[in-house]
Give the backbone structure.
Amino acid sequence: MLSRIGRRPIPIPEGVKVDLQEGRIIVQGPKGRLEKPLPPLVKVNIEGNEIKVLPQEVQKRLAKKVKAFHGLARALINNLVVGVTNGFTRALDIVGLGYRAELKGDVLIFHLGYSHPIEFKLPQGVKAKVERGSGEVQYRVILEGIDKELVGQTAANIRRLRPPEPYKGKGVRYADEKILRKAGKGGKKA
């Protein structure tokens, strides 16, 4: 029983070195080095310039778990390979009158309508850029890094500072996020 995602081999690009060590995989490339523990119930083989993830043979009652871990392991390893070659980016839009962001060293300072500015220290391995927005977007914060999980979690933590509200759409949101708007107190006036 194979996962459709797990079945696909992962090509190893030029300049990327992959190493397996007791339940861990280490990937080194032009942008840096990443390592991750492997999920249980899977085996990883490096054949030439491809990485293949194979499920272990187990009892029938564990077949669903094996299939899930098979796809998970392949996705995690692929994210490591893509991260050390291209890296990942995530953009956040800041919407709201007077809302703004600025970058000082490795600290993002947000003014989000609270009585005080919020200082957000970027984790090791994540870089940020702040740009002026256009239209209803006041500022755009672009996060970059080689670890997809870390970039995504950092973006989620920043969004949590002021989630977008459904009436005017003010707050911090992902650049590709659509906010479902609600009608205000007036409802629909004819």
About this structure: Helices lie at 4-7, 63-85, 148-159. The first helix runs from residue 4 to 7. The mean pLDDT is 91. DSSP finds three helices and 13 strands in the chain.
